[in-house]
Structure to design on (262 residues):
């Protein structure tokens, strides 16, 4: 599974809070497909993305959202953006 | 699958069947699903339909606020949306979302990756919805071999339904 279990768990929590697959989410893998396997439609994915943005104080651009096919894609996007934000803060403090 | 999703599939199947029946009957509509649009500008080459539950959109907007609207609607669409009451706004947004999905479906396999804000739904002189494409939506439209796009939106029984015909 993913290398950042804490982030992964938080993504799952956000999805559960929105009412998505309370039981299904316990068996998620990186390859689990958002639409086909979880039955999440394009509008629901928008809400998940917005909820993740608010939870993690990140900004997921529209192109990135359109490229999300699997649960792994979603978690990777969050992990990468959180790292970018951390690096930006560190650089600002250093500079 | 949600009730709205089931209704969408059912409507799409019904419309496709009716168009196919017209062609099979050898009527004036013969060839609706046949040759690409370039052969006849009146030919309908693709159909897209989508149904969105207004209540679901209203709940989403209540939970996520303007940030959600900013992802689904263009700045122009948001301007038209501003100042409306919660229920009225939800109807408007549901109609736009259904319309954008219906338009995307006419692109077939080319529609993958088309963003919400790359399909803008404007209003014509008579109040009719006018889809305006940009970016990947415009590209997908051309790659799908389409030249014309028509759209209709309706609201009733707590849902917004949109049908797009392309040729």
């Amino acid at each position: 599974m993913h290398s950042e279990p804490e982030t992964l768990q938080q993504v799952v929590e956000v999805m559960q809070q929105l009412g998505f697959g309370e039981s299904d989410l316990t068996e998620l893998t990186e390859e689990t497909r958002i639409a086909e396997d979880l039955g999440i439609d394009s509008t629901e994915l928008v809400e998940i993305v917005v909820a993740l943005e608010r939870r993690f104080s990140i900004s997921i651009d529209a192109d990135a959202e359109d490229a999300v096919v699997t649960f792994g894609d979603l978690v990777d996007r969050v992990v990468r953006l959180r790292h970018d934000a951390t690096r930006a803060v560190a650089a600002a403090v250093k500079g | 699958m949600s009730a709205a999703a089931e209704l969408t599939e059912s409507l799409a199947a019904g419309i496709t069947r009716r168009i196919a029946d017209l062609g099979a009957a050898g009527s004036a509509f013969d060839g609706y699903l046949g040759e690409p649009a370039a052969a006849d500008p009146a030919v309908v080459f693709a159909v897209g339909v989508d149904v969105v539950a207004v209540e679901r959109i209203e709940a989403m907007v209540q939970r996520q606020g303007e940030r959600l609207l900013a992802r689904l609607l263009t700045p122009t669409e948001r301007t038209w949306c501003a100042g409306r009451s919660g229920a009225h706004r939800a109807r408007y947004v549901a109609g736009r979302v259904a319309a954008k999905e219906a338009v995307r479906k006419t692109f077939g396999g080319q529609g993958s990756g088309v963003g919400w804000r790359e399909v803008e739904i404007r209003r014509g002189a008579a109040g009719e919805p006018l889809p305006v494409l940009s970016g990947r939506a415009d590209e997908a439209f051309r790659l799908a071999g389409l030249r014309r796009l028509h759209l209709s939106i309706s609201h009733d029984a707590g849902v917004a339904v949109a049908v797009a015909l392309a040729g």
In short: The longest helix of chain A spans residues 71-94. Helices of chain A lie at 5-17, 42-56, 62-66, 71-94. Chain A has four helices and no strands. The CA atoms of residues 51 and 64 of chain A lie 15 Å apart.
